[in-house]
Structure formats: structure tokens, C-alpha cells
Amino acid sequence: MAGPAPRYPAVMSPRQSASPAPERVDVAVVGAGIVGLATALRLLEQRPGLRLAVLEREAVVGAHQSGHNSGVVHAGLYYAPGSQKALLCREGKGLVERYCEARGIPIGWPGKLVVALDEAELPRLASLKERGLANGVDGLEEVGPERIREIEPHVRGIRALWSPRTGITDFAQVTRAYAEDVRARGGWVELSRPVTAIERRPDAMVLETPRGPVQARAVIACAGLWADRVAALTGDRRSDSPAIIPFRGDYYTLTADAAPLVRGLVYPVPDPRFPFLGVHFTRRVDGQVWAGPNAVLAFRRTGYRRRDVSARDLAEALGNPGFRRLARRFWRTGAAEMWRDWSKRAFLGELQRYLPELRADQIRFGPSGVRAQALGRDGTLVDDFDLAGGDRVLHVRNAPSPAATSSLAIGARLAAEAVGRFGL
Q: 108 by DSSP, 3-state: which?
């Protein structure tokens, strides 16, 4: 069991809010997303006085996956028992809940209902229940139609799993709070400072940036959508290293008159062949209800709109042998996702399978996110977290959902490994 959460300062250090990072530091963290900042915070908790800089390419923290997710605090229902996702999600959930309460960040527990629509889905629902019980999901309950109607009166289904302690928060706000706490503990968070090259020297790793180099004893790369490219900058060019393939997910939002149709979180029974959970409903901390996302190839690593295209990013994805194998294997699924991406009627039809009363005039095109999905050369989607160590470098190669829920647990593991491996 995780111990009590540390006390977190409420304000940033005046020195750090005004001064740039020095040219030499003990540790450079690449990426100011939720995992990078949680790792930086854990390191500074373990080693006060450590000279640590977080280098971020964007002008704000949490600009991508950390700030473009639905905000669900996962209970650990989906993940293979014993996997890093299962272990770190369970530990991280308690940590992030206590962190939010200590920092005054809104958090609630509306609960999640995973709904089976027909008999064919019942074996998968039973397998999901076994996983949830093995992972120690609090209060997990299998329910029938009457209980489904008690929990979600407007949702239809023949059986469901009810996870009452699945939560909701604003992970963009959590990420900003982590950054404040990193600064308050003496670290630097350098925005608009992308790492363009990394040179290994006998006494240091030299990270080149447009505002000058930073020398570090060790590097922790938490680069998200650029994880594979940053790995290549460090000299890691192994043929078996996973590539990052960006998948865009679009949400619709329910209008104010339709939002009461959903009380909490309503999910489909997932297909174990895919890491994506399917279109679902999420009641957020601000009262909005999001419906989605779908999952289609993004034509740019930061492609939040259909018209966002990068020739380099698209060529890399389409030229990747693993992606071509994946596309051949699941072309029908991919085509259906693309059709729902362009057709509001098709998207609505998927939503109405669970919420029959929902009308077309009650959904509005909403926000989008891009998932950094690691993919092997054999076309296998990397499902578990991939936290890899090397000489003077630690890499987070794959950290999709539930990375936000698990962020403080992932950060603690990386911090402990860095302290031991790098002699910090």
C-alpha cells in the first residue's frame, strides 16, 4: 500500500519563476507532460537540492496528451494482472486522489458502468470481471438490467460491471500543479525549449536547444508523441525499438438538455485485440458530458483537426512496416472508424446503442486528442507501459492511458531507478 502523500507547496519559488535553468544540471527531464513533471517532482522529493531542469518544446505544460484527455481516474479494471499498468494504476490512483485533495483540485467519483448489449459480449464481460477482481478494483459488482437502470436510468444493456470508485478530475490542472511544485522545490521548468540534439560526452549528456545547450549527468526522456525521436537522439536506434504512431480521437459533447441522460461514466465492453476502449460517455468535473472518442490515424503528431497534415509524420507512419501490418489485419475496423469520423449520423448511431433517447440535435462536435501509441515492427500495438533504462538515460517509450492516473507512481519508480542507476 502507498504511504501518505507528501505535503505540497502551494506557490512556486520566486527564484525559479524568474531565473533560467543553469547550463549544468544533475538531471534533465525531456517533456513537461504529466509523467515528466511527476517524475521531476518525485526526484526532488527524494533528493532535495538536486539540480533538475525540465525541457519542454511547447509554450505550456501538458500541451498534448496530458491536456487532451477525458479526465478519468481509472480504477484498474482493464489491465492484465501483474502488468505495469495494473500495478502502477492501483498505486497511482490513491496517490493522485490524495494529491488532488491536498491541492484543492476538483475530483469526484461518479463511477463507471461497462455495459454488455448482447449475449455475444458476455464472455468478454466475464473476463473483464476476473481481471478487475484480480487487480483489486474497489466495490466491483456485476449487475443486471434492473440495477443498470438504477445506476443509469437512460442506458440500455443486458449485463454490466459497476465500478463505483472510478473517478474524474482535470488532469490539465493536475499537470500545472505538478509544475508549480517542481518549481517550488527548486527545479526549473523551461518552456518553448525543444531538445534538438543530444551528445554523449565522457562527463555529461549535452542537450542542444535553441536557447543554448544544457549539460546533465543523466537524462529522463518523457517525450510522449516524440518518444521514439528523442530515443533516436540519444543514440538508441535498435531495430526492435517501438515507433510512435499518432491516433486522433474526436469527441462530441452533449447539449445542456441531453447531459442529464448520463449520470457518470458509461463504457462498452472492450475488444481485447485493441488498446482503445471504444466510444463511451464521460461526465466531467465541470458537468459537461463527452461522448467518444473514435480512433483514426492522425496525419500529424499534433494533428487535432482532420486538416492537420505533416508530410514527415504521415510518411513515417505509412512507411512503418508495423503500421502496414496492422492496417492489413484490421482494415475493416479502421474503415469503420474513419466513416464515423466523417459521419455524424454514424457516430450518433454508435452512441444510441447505449443511449437510445439521444438525438442528433443533442450532440455537438467537441474536443480532440492525439494518443501516442507505441507500435512494434510486427504490427503489435504495445499495450503495457514501456519504461526502459540505458546508460545515463531512462526512457518512457509508451505511456498511454492510464498514465495520468498512474503518474505519481510512474514518477516514483523512475525516480528510484534514476537515483540508483545514476548515483544521484
A: strand
Q: Name the 3-class secondary structure at 79.
A: coil
- The full set of domain ranges for the chain reads 22-66+172-242+384-422, 112-164, 243-381
Q: Report the distance separating Cα 113 and Cα 141, nearest Å.
A: 10
Question: Can you list the positions of beta strands (E) in 294-403?
Answer: 296-297, 363-375, 386-390, 393-398
Do the domains at 22-66+172-242+384-422 and 243-381 have one common CATH topology?
A: no
Tens of pLDDT, residues 47-94: 999 999 999 999 999 999 999 999 999 999 999 999 999 999 999 999
Alpha helices (H) in 152-250, listed in sequence order: 171-184, 227-233
Closest CA to 284 of 170, 144, 154: 170
Q: What are the tens digits of pLDDT across the range 373-399?
A: 999 999 998 989 999 888 899 999 999
User: How far apart are alpha carbons 187 and 388 in whole angstroms?
Assistant: 24
* Bridge partners for 244 per DSSP: 374
Provide the b/e sequence for 53-73 (b: ≥16 CB within 10 Å): bbbbbbeebbbbbbbbbbbbb
Crossing angle for the helix pair 171-184 and 34-46, to the nearest 10 degrees = 30
Q: Could you give the residue ranges of the DSSP H alpha helices within 265-320?
A: 311-319
Q: Is 3.90.1740 the CATH number for 243-381? A: no
E strands, 118-277, are: 141-143, 159-163, 167-169, 188-190, 197-201, 204-208, 214-221, 243-254, 265-268
The pTM score is 0.94
Give CATH for domain 22-66+172-242+384-422: 3.50.50.60
Given CA atoms 112, 118, 120, 123 in this order, what sign does their dihedral have?
Answer: positive
